[in-house]
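We close this part of the discussion by returning to an individual protein. The amino acid sequence and the backbone structure tokens for this protein are reproduced below:
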Amino acid sequence: MPDKSKRQRGGVLRALSFSSQVGLTMTACVFIGVFAGQYLDKITGLPPLFLLTFSLLGMASALWSVYTMMKRK
């Protein structure tokens, strides 16, 4: 019986690790897009243009990354 509980614990840890990987990937993609947009807005002097564009690109890349991670799983 101890063997079964080890397998269950391993499954829970695997699921927890996968969900944290998904969360970190999404957060990193969006933050990189936001910071790149803010930086380009500062350089060019066009306040909302690059921030909105790169924020949307960050969200799209986050969704794409999560989709490919789910597909591999």
